[in-house]
Amino acid sequence: MDKSVSDRFARKDLRIGIIGCGYVGLPLALRFSEVGCHVTGFDTDPAKVTELNASRSYIKHIPAEEIHRRRESGRFDATSDFDRLRDMDAILICVPTPLDERRQPDLSYVVASAEAVARTLRHGQLVVLESTSYPGTTDELVLSILERSGLRCPVAQGERAGDPETDFYLAFSPEREDPGNAKFTLHLIPKVVGGINPDSRRAAEALYAQAVGRVVPVSSTRAAEMTKLLENIFRGVNIALVNELKLLSLRMGVDIWEVIETASTKPFGFMPFWPGPGLGGHCIPVDPFYLSWKAHEYDFSTRFIELAGEINTAMPYHVVDSVVAALNGRRKSLKGSRVLVLGVAYKKDVDDLRESPSLKIIELLQERGAQVEYHDPYFPQLHKMRHYDYSHMRSAEIAPQNLAGYDCVLVATDHSSYDYQAIVDSAPLVVDSRNATRGVTRNREKIVRC
Hints:
The chain is of the alpha/beta class and 450 residues long. The chain is globular and about 75 Å long. It contains 14 helices and 13 strands. Helix 8 packs across helix 10. The strands form 2 sheets. It has an 8-stranded mixed sheet with strand order 3-2-1-4-5-6-7-8, with helices on both faces. The chain has a 5-stranded parallel sheet with strand order 10-9-11-12-13, covered by helices on one side.
């Protein structure tokens, strides 16, 4: 085995460029800087670049002090000048891979990043795609763009394929970030790595081994891409299962949360998933559709994925129907009613709006004539997003006298900071989509769980 490639990318003085300074790219940049590498964050948003170079954070779980330490060390900076990519030894692409309006893959950010790299690509550089996508993205799409530079990275999978002459190295290593999870921080999460050829894999292994405790090599970029999709499809399908069982349990008068907690006492063969108002975050609502889209190329229908998608997509509609029913039970119409949505983040205790079901719920409530406001401690004001424009909305006060003025308070995100007993005491009606009020002891007649 030729160890020269591994040795080259195991050096502590590597210059690493990370394209995309968001929830994935920024923690990665800070971690590589922490272990001694020289890191430059590349972003098309000049506001992010300005914030980072001023040692300010725009992500809640990343303290400004950490950015300041990395800046003071001289091992981290940010820029919008993509010509500086030519100075990097390794370039990691950490950009969004959303769905378009027809729920088909939108790889425009990946394409733009690969084109930027291709313009300055030089011999011996390592390029790693971290953005989640369908199997074949790296070796079909990214490779073809990079080779427009005139440099070559031959595809050769497995050790027996030998080591073809390689001008640059290309790999895929899926991000596995879980924003807000203090138990599993970046360096504790094993890093999956697949290369276009053996040398590319070795280069990526050596690079990531500096920043994480364990690197897991796989035979190809496609195996690495499929691994990421399996992880998130597994969650999406199981969440859809408990969401469907929740709907059935509501009709049967069974407490699905009690059932899941009880089933969790089995020490083998079961792991808990929890129902809610719909899927959120960048990965689980999006990634399965990348695989189902790619499967059509092989005349294959991914029925589990599509069914799970239908169930999870329908959950915000169920929540709004539950608000309608709860108001009807109190002789009120949704049209004209004042509804406060508690929580717009996609999950508790994070400042992340991506694909949040709360955004769809707000839209549906407004379409039916409700006067909708929201409260979220992590979002004092909303902004224009890919599919929604709530830039006129600001977080409402949740003092007791204000809560009393709403016809319904809807718990959409169960932030730990909320005092649910005080909320139930003050509000005339609480619709709970997260079982957040399970510990409330007074005024439980005001609560409708959905």
